Amino acid sequence: MGDRAIFITGGASGIGQAVAQLFAARGWRVGLADVNAAGLATTQAMLPEGMATTHLLDVRDRDQWVAALADFAEASGGRLDVLFNNAGIGTSGPFASADPAELERCIAVNFTGVVHGAHTAFPLLSATPGSVMLITSSAAGIYGTAGAAIYAATKFAVRGLAESLDGEWAPAGVQVRTLMPAFIDTPLLDQPSGGSNQVIRERVQRAGLEISPVGDVAEAAWQAVHGHVLHTRVGKTARKLWFAARWMPGALRKRAQRSRPERR
Predict the structure, then answer these.
(1) Under CATH, which number does the domain 5-258 receive?
(2) Radius of gyration for the chain, computed over Cα atoms and rounded to the nearest angstrom
(3) Which of 17, 29, 215, 254 has the fewest beta carbons under 10 Å from its own?
(4) What family does this chain come from, according to its entry (predicted)?
């Protein structure tokens, strides 16, 4: 059997970069995909020589998916043990006053991009025994977040896709998993928080919520790929939210109504 192989979208930074480092350190061949060429080169330089290939990929473009996966399959000898459908962007602020183009971009990257990846990668996954598609959802895919409606909606969407394909793909021997991290120490936290002059990181810290190291997500990804849990929650906030969504949904609803963003 050849080297196990993982293809990672959003591999230029953050969670994708950390997962690439961990899997490569454990002997996996890595395909790094992103729209950020400089970031791809940076990540590749962090990995053992000869263990990674880079692929410029806008996940919104199905044709680019087809080309990138074909190139990776050539390098991996046709193996795709794990598709890490990870690329995503954030958007926040009051929904009613949001820029429609920003909303459409978030949907296109966070959901349509995942759909394209799942659809185009299935032939390779189904041809690789024991393969897994891992999708980055979010704690926002556990219960909707006031002030991040479209972001939360996309994370619920990929959760639903995963649950559906986990059943549909089982006869083909393809497993499906998600990661549901809460607040992770990545560049996404340094984006402006909608309706505020603060960045997201500052608001999280003021709320007294934990920011988990990105390495925790990488280790959770490893466990998800090698375990049997459909949805892996990462961080205390995500685990508490999962519990509350099941047992105390009324309390979550009231808190969401109190925390709605200011109009701008």
Answers:
(1) 3.40.50.720
(2) 18
(3) 254
(4) Belongs to the short-chain dehydrogenases/reductases (SDR) family.
